[in-house]
Structure formats: C-alpha cells, structure tokens
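Hi there,

I know you've been waiting on this one. I reran it after we fixed the sequence typo, so this is the corrected version. Both the input and the resulting structure follow.
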Amino acid sequence: MIRIVLPHHLRTLIEVDREVVLDVDGQLTIGSILDQVEAMYPVLRGTIRDPLTQKRRPFIRFFACEEDFSNAPLDAVIPDPVARGDEPLHVVGAMAGG
C-alpha cells in the first residue's frame, strides 16, 4: 500500500480527501507510482507530468521521508518507509511570486 498526498487543487479535481492510497505491482519507483495514480485517476494525466516527455511539471515537487525527489529520475526507487506505507509520498505544488 502506497500513500500519496496530493496538492489541494488535484485532490479537489479527483474528489478525495487528504491521501490517495493505492497498490503498485513490481518495483516501486516515482514513475511506477505516477503511472498507477494516472491509471486510477485519468483526469490527472498531464497535471503532474508532461504527457509526452513524462517529466514532472515545473512547479510540481516530490518529497519522501523529508528528502526531495523532484529531480530524481522516474526510475528512482522510493525509500522503504514509503514502500511499506509508513510514510506518504508528497506531491507538492510549488508557489511562485512575491
């Protein structure tokens, strides 16, 4: 079981509360988790990562176990506490402006 905390606007879009819980088969990577989220919630395709390049959107960040995975490759393996469901993967919408 993987727990994912999405930004408020994406939670509103898919009509869920704080966390999304899902099962991911195979190796747990940032990419495999995002694949599963997009499969469960097709409306999120293109909101977290570019649909053509699969790279994360510029103002989206990924955090796991207080570590920034935003620039990690999509095949980066997530930490064990996230894989066990003890800690969530945070998808954060960065803010810009002054």
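Quick highlight: Helices lie at 8-14, 30-40, 80-84.

Best,
R. S.
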